[in-house]
Amino acid sequence: MTNIYPSPHPLVAHKLSILRDVNTEPKKFRQLVRELGALLTYEATTDLQMSPIDVQTPMGTAKCHELAMKIGLIPILRAGLGLVEGVWELIPTAEVWHIGLYRDEKTLQPVEYYNKLPVEPTVSVCLVLDPMLATGGSAVATVDILKRWGVKRIKFVGLIGAPEGIKALQIAHPDVDIHLAAVDDHLNEKGYIVPGLGDAGDRQFGTA
Ligand code: URA
């Protein structure tokens, strides 16, 4: 079964409290999403493979390590975009690939409208980024696409998860680790996480 990792870090809890506040303005909201993206990625990447390298210091040769795997960031449009910058500050060599999905109003299934992935995979680890793991539909569909592309190691990094979305991702993709700042109570009838933080896209982009 999927490993779910709600962050135990006090800085994450503190920043998430400000993020949730209905009075937090878009500028501050974007800054917090960026910072939380970096903190959660720090936790999500503790098991990345390393290769040894020798580094010349002013005093001699140090036995060091560098990342051995190419990393891809896959923000789920549009709210996932705000998480990219924070992750990129930690992993500047990461490739960012965009996949666009919308929900068909009749079938309620995610439909792909943008996907420019090359034929062969260019990365070996992917971080799927979305602040809200609500129904899990977009996350499951995105992981489906990445697996078809040939990526073997995929992790989900988000801010708040609903039990419904976590369960959907766990059932569809039990090998995908889920890193979150918090797990909330439930989804309401409109698909919003309660208590959540509202619409993460609207709050970042000032479109509420
Ligand atoms: N997407 C959001 O932005 N907020 C939610 O609560 C659920 C999905």
From TrEMBL:
Enzyme superclass (EC): transferase
GO cellular component, one term: cytoplasm
Molecular functions per Gene Ontology: GTP binding; magnesium ion binding; uracil phosphoribosyltransferase activity
Upper taxonomic lineage: Bacteria, Bacillati, Chloroflexota, Anaerolineae, Anaerolineales
Domain of life of the organism encoding this protein: Bacteria
Keyword Manganese (UniProt): no
Required cofactor names: Mg(2+)
Annotated positions binding uracil: 193, 198-200
Protein residues bound to 5-phospho-alpha-D-ribose 1-diphosphate: 78, 103, 130-138, 199
Protein family per UniProt: Belongs to the UPRTase family.
EC assignment: 2.4.2.9
NCBIfam families xref list: PRK00129.1, upp
BP GO annotations: UMP salvage; uracil salvage
Keywords noted in UniProt: Allosteric enzyme, Glycosyltransferase, GTP-binding, Magnesium, Nucleotide-binding, Transferase
Record note on cofactor: Binds 1 Mg(2+) ion per subunit. The magnesium is bound as Mg-PRPP.
Pathway field: Pyrimidine metabolism; UMP biosynthesis via salvage pathway; UMP from uracil: step 1/1
Protein's name in the database: Uracil phosphoribosyltransferase
Catalytic activity: UMP + diphosphate = 5-phospho-alpha-D-ribose 1-diphosphate + uracil
Transmembrane segments: none
HAMAP family named among the record's database cross-references: Upp_B
Function recorded in the entry: Catalyzes the conversion of uracil and 5-phospho-alpha-D-ribose 1-diphosphate (PRPP) to UMP and diphosphate.
InterPro entries named among the record's database cross-references: PRTase-like, PRTase_dom, Upp_B, UPRT, UPRTase/APRTase
This protein's record includes keyword Nucleotide-binding: yes
Domain Phosphoribosyltransferase: 8-207
Regulation of its activity: Allosterically activated by GTP.
